[in-house]
From TrEMBL:
GO molecular function: dTDP-glucose 4,6-dehydratase activity
Highest taxon of the lineage: Bacteria
Membership in a protein family: Belongs to the NAD(P)-dependent epimerase/dehydratase family. dTDP-glucose dehydratase subfamily.
Documented EC number(s): 4.2.1.46
Protein's organism: Erythrobacter dokdonensis DSW-74
Domain NAD(P)-binding, chain residue ranges per copy: 5-332
Name of protein: dTDP-glucose 4,6-dehydratase
Names of required cofactors: NAD(+)
Keyword terms: Lyase, NAD
Known catalytic reactions: dTDP-alpha-D-glucose = dTDP-4-dehydro-6-deoxy-alpha-D-glucose + H2O
One of the GO biological process terms: nucleotide-sugar metabolic process
Entry keyword Aminoacyl-tRNA synthetase: no
Length: 352
């Protein structure tokens, strides 16, 4: 069984992947490298069997040492700055982490894995559908051959990192795969993203800020399905290839927001004690959560629609999402209600 190095493994998707991998591969050794920035939390790894190393992916010497000392043969690269709003207000961090950080990892992997006769290895890079830009209402979904057209500093930095990964394969022979995923949701997501932000705002009676007309469309992917797709890439992916991983739930933001509101209302009607725990929630007074909806000025450069064509992943990897959006959203809400000790310290850090 391969020894894994998981970058960004104390973050949202990386942390879920660590728990998923532990459950599916209990004998595998997992080392997590995470800088524990605002979106990385030690508590996300509680209950896992991973060894946490606190460090920066731009520290090439550290990465080389980890690869050698732990006999790592698979590197799964999640570590990234990923919030579009933050990239608009401060692009430099996205250049540093997403481009320079990825290059540092690639240099380390090349130095350790390709030295001498080389060793069997895999560098799997996690990317996003945002590198493809924005779709019109009748455009076909993004495929692996869709030209890149990033529209934000975040997506531009991820596009650059994708190109670096490809270049290290074609120039140096590094065995790489890349997956481009759609919008993830689920447990352990930092509450700056739409679903956890709106869930927690609803519990605290805070406004639900809706950009523009709320009709921007995204494909929603439960994080466990994303982990399943990554596992398939590692097991059956062809080095040098990219694979789109989607959730099969293309929805306008307004539909997602309305379903969040409905799920919160249902939870207050069904779960004893919620009104006492969250007295500021409209649902605690029998009022609709939807009363908190507030329209705000649209985000600069806001892409209108993303959609994923996952035909290649289904055909070549055997990938298929197991969660519908309805059951995934309900499970996510109940996880946040059951794990207040995880998100409570984070709420004060996020401004709606």
């Amino acid at each position: 069984m391969a020894n894994l190095l998981v970058t960004g493994g104390a973050g949202f998707i990386g942390g879920n992947f660590v728990h998923y991998w532990n459950a599916r591969h209990p004998d595998a050794r997992v080392v997590v490298l995470d800088a524990l920035t605002y979106a990385g939390n030690r508590s996300t790894l509680e209950g896992s069997k991973a060894e946490l190393v606190v460090g920066d992916i731009r520290d090439t010497a550290l990465v080389e040492a980890l690869l050698r000392d732990h006999e790592i043969t698979t590197l799964v690269h999640f570590a990234a700055e990923s919030h579009v709003d933050r990239s608009i207000s401060g692009p430099d961090a996205f250049i540093d982490t997403n481009i320079l950080g990825t290059n540092s990892l690639l240099k380390a992997a090349r130095a350790v894995w390709l030295a001498g006769s080389g060793v069997p290895h895999r560098f799997h890079h996690i990317s996003t559908d945002e590198v493809f830009g924005s779709l019109g209402p009748n455009d076909p979904a993004f495929s692996e051959t869709t030209p890149y057209a990033p529209n934000s500093p975040y997506s531009a930095s991820k596009a650059a990192s994708d190109h670096l990964v490809r270049a290290y394969h074609h120039t140096f022979g590094l065995e790489v795969t890349t997956s481009n995923c759609s919008n993830n949701y689920g447990p352990y997501q930092y509450p700056e993203k739409l679903i956890p932000l709106f869930l927690l705002n609803a519990l605290h009676g805070r406004n639900l800020p809706i950009y523009g007309d709320g009709m921007n469309v995204r494909d929603w992917l439960h994080v466990e399905d994303h982990c399943r797709g990554i596992e398939a890439c590692l097991a059956r992916g062809v080095p040098g290839e990219t694979y789109n991983i989607g959730g099969g739930a293309e929805l306008p933001n307004m539909t997602v927001i309305d379903r969040v509101c409905t799920e919160v209302d249902c939870a207050f009607a069904e779960v004893d004690g919620l009104a006492q725990r969250y007295p500021d929630a409209p649902a605690a007074r029998g009022e609709p959560t939807a009363s908190l909806k507030t329209f705000v000025t649209d985000r600069a450069g806001h892409d209108r629609r993303y959609a994923i064509d996952e035909t290649k992943a289904r055909a070549e990897l055997g990938y298929a999402p197991a969660h519908t959006f309805e059951d995934g959203l309900q499970q996510t809400l109940r996880w946040y209600l059951d794990n207040e000790q995880w998100w409570r310290p984070l709420v004060g850090q996020v401004q709606a």
